[in-house]
């Protein structure tokens, strides 16, 4: 795990809040201007399904975190996070992110 000021960095993705809009994928590409045959952040939209009669739909947001770490060092509020319309993404020191994720339906990626 990489370190900033002795802290590991983590990116949290809230599966309940994410609507699969592809905003973070576009934000990452716009920020870093990498070619279309590269993926630093990938959104995978999943099919909806029923749980106890209620419709659920979770999406997968998968960052490539050695890139996220460099990004966070330059800007602690990167565009993928600030531009997420549902506030489903957070990035920061692992300890803070782990606390934030308590009781939530989240994926945490460490870097
Ligand atoms: S994390 Fe936010 S920006 Fe990314 S797909 Fe989900 S809702 Fe959109
Ligand atoms: S933190 Fe930076 S590198 Fe990582 S997904 Fe967001 S914009 Fe891309």
Give a brief outline of the structure.
With 111 residues, the chain is α+β, with helices and mostly antiparallel strands.
Considering the chains and any ligands shown, give keywords for the structure.
3-stranded antiparallel sheet, two-stranded antiparallel ribbon, 111 residues, 27% strand, binds iron/sulfur cluster, single chain, Alpha-Beta Plaits
How are the secondary structure elements laid out?
Elements: E1 9-14, H1 23-32, E2 41-44, E3 49-51, E4 54-56, E5 60-63, H2 65-74, H3 79-82, E6 89-93, H4 94-101, E7 106-110
Bound molecules: iron/sulfur cluster (SF4) (2 copies).
Commentary on this structure:
The structure is a single chain. β3 (49-51) and β4 (54-56) form a beta hairpin. The chain has one domain (9-110): Alpha-Beta Plaits. It is an alpha+beta fold and 111 residues long. The longest helix is centred in the N-terminal third of the chain and has 10 residues, at 23-32. The strands form three sheets. A three-stranded antiparallel beta sheet has the order 6-1-7. The protein has a two-stranded antiparallel sheet with strand order 2-5. Strands 3-4 form a two-stranded antiparallel sheet. The chain has helices at residues 23-32, 65-74, 79-82, 94-101; strands at residues 9-14, 41-44, 49-51, 54-56, 60-63, 89-93, 106-110. The chain binds iron/sulfur cluster (2 copies). The site of one iron/sulfur cluster has 15 residues, from α1.
């Amino acid at each position: 795990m990489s370190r900033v000021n002795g802290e590991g960095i983590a990116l949290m993705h809230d599966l309940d809040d994410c609507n699969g809009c592809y905003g973070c994928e576009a934000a990452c590409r716009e920020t870093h201007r990498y070619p279309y045959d590269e993926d630093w952040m990938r959104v995978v939209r999943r099919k909806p399904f029923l749980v106890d009669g209620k419709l659920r739909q979770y999406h997968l947001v998968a960052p490539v975190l050695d890139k996220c770490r460099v990004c966070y060092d330059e800007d602690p509020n990167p565009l993928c996070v600030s531009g997420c319309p549902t506030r489903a993404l957070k990035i920061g020191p692992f300890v803070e992110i782990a606390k934030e994720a308590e009781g939530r339906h989240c994926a945490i990626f460490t870097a």
